[in-house]
Amino acid sequence: MAASAVRVRGVGTHGAPSVPGVDPGGCLASTAPQDLGPARCGRTGRLVIGDRGRGQPAGKKGGSLTGPNPVDRGKPGSKIHVLTDAGGLPLVVAVSPANPHDSGAFVPLVASIPAIRSRRGPRRRHPATLRAGKAYDQPERRRFLRRRGIAVRIARRGVDSTERLGRHRWKVERTLAWLGGYRRLSPRYERNGYNFLGFLCLAAAITCWKKLPHST
After folding, report:
1. How wide is the angle at C-alpha 156 spanned by C-alphas 153 and 162, nearest 5°?
2. For the purposes of burial, counting CB atoms within 10 Å of the CB of 65, is it exposed (0-12), middle (13-18) or buried (19 or more)?
3. For residues 84, 26, 200 and 42, what is the CA-based torsion angle, rounded to 10 degrees?
4. 2-211 in CATH: which number?
5. Cα-atom radius of gyration of the chain, to the nearest Å?
6. Residues in domain Transposase IS4-like (predicted)?
């Protein structure tokens, strides 16, 4: 499990509600303003968001599911969260503003793991083991996994060496690199957080299709 920040490029202020199933508590999404008007044409080849009450200038960066990026001089950005299987195939993806802590998406991601068909017996709805970095080393996260019968393999702060984490983390980083290779995701062009999440889900589905074996 990991997260990656994405810079927002040339999007105007536009809100979207929280993502159902991924963000049930609304902790990853911002409040959606309801006073935005239709888009009107500005100069040739440009669009200006029609906000009658505020007079939103053209080209001002922002948008739903964005926040100041702490690693990019506070510029507006979004963070991509991904949970993969042992081979690096993306199982669950989510989007949040760039400034909240990565651990805020831990519970929604694990709770959204889809049922996976097994060779024998019923579908598996929980993994046997979950590995995560030191950012998720919190007692409540460990208790959440134990209640679901999932073995905890979260790196412990001040105990586990950072050199050993790379044996498993490189697979998640490779998955983030795969997703970052799609032009619609990096940088982010979408004003609406739903649209950006939709492209992210599509990229994850295409990635799984490319990596899974196909019958010839």
Report:
1. 95
2. buried
3. -160
4. 3.30.420.10
5. 19
6. 71-205
Instruction: Give the pair of three-digit tokens for residue 186.
Output: 């990096």
Question: 129-176, pLDDT tens digit by residue?
Answer: 898 888 888 899 999 999 989 998 888 887 777 666 677 888 899 999
Amino acid 76 reads P
Residues 6+ apart with CB under 8 A from 51: 13, 35, 36, 37
pTM: 0.67
CB atoms within 10 A of CB 113: 18
Asked whether 173 and 88 are in contact (CB, 8 A), the reply is no
Please, are residues 63 and 191 in contact by the beta-carbon 8 Å criterion? yes
The ranges assigned to domains in the chain are: 2-211
